[in-house]
Specification:
about 160 residues; alpha+beta; SMI1/KNR4-like; 9 strands; globular; SMI1/KNR4 family protein; Knr4/Smi1-like_sf
């Protein structure tokens, strides 16, 4: 399956599992997605952009996939992937080409590495650890793209 087909399968699972899933009823529009890209200085890979435009973000059985939304008390601030990515760039020296998808609960961060796009523009999902932890070792590759990552984690979450 392609990354977009994986995201479509992921979205079908999310939308058919009421009671164990929370997602944005009003996902972000194209203008918010483009603003987030300007703020971050990177483009969302196609499968992540598709997820953002369809769901905006979601949580399924404790697997939270960060999306985009504005704070009610400060509508100028974009939360989710944007706020987490900006914070990690500052706090953990995360490269600017990386986008935070999730925290792994063990000190690592699942990220999209937009500096490594494939021919379709999809970015791999890696586990980011700060440079003082990795000491020059390469980061672990988790999935070839957001679609594969989201579908795999969601299938595990609903069968666990």
């Amino acid at each position: 399956m392609t990354a977009i087909e994986d995201v479509d399968a992921f979205i079908r699972i999310v939308k058919t599992h009421d009671g164990i899933v929370n997602y944005h009823e009003d996902p972000p529009d194209a203008a918010l997605i483009e603003e987030a890209e300007r703020v971050l200085g990177v483009s969302f890979p196609p499968s992540d952009r598709h997820f953002l435009s369809e769901l905006g973000g979601c949580d399924i059985e404790g697997e939270e996939f960060y999306g985009l939304f504005r704070r009610r008390d400060d509508p100028q601030q974009i939360m989710g992937t944007v706020s987490f990515s900006l914070r990690e760039r500052q706090d953990s020296q995360m490269p600017t080409a990386m986008l935070v998808l999730q925290y792994d609960g063990m000190g690592g961060i699942y990220v999209l590495d937009t500096a490594q796009p494939n021919e379709a523009g999809e970015a791999p999902v890696l586990v980011y650890l700060p440079p003082w932890v990795t000491d020059g070792r390469p980061l672990e590759r988790i999935a070839p793209n957001f679609g594969a990552f989201a579908l795999t984690k969601t299938r595990r979450a609903i069968t666990a």
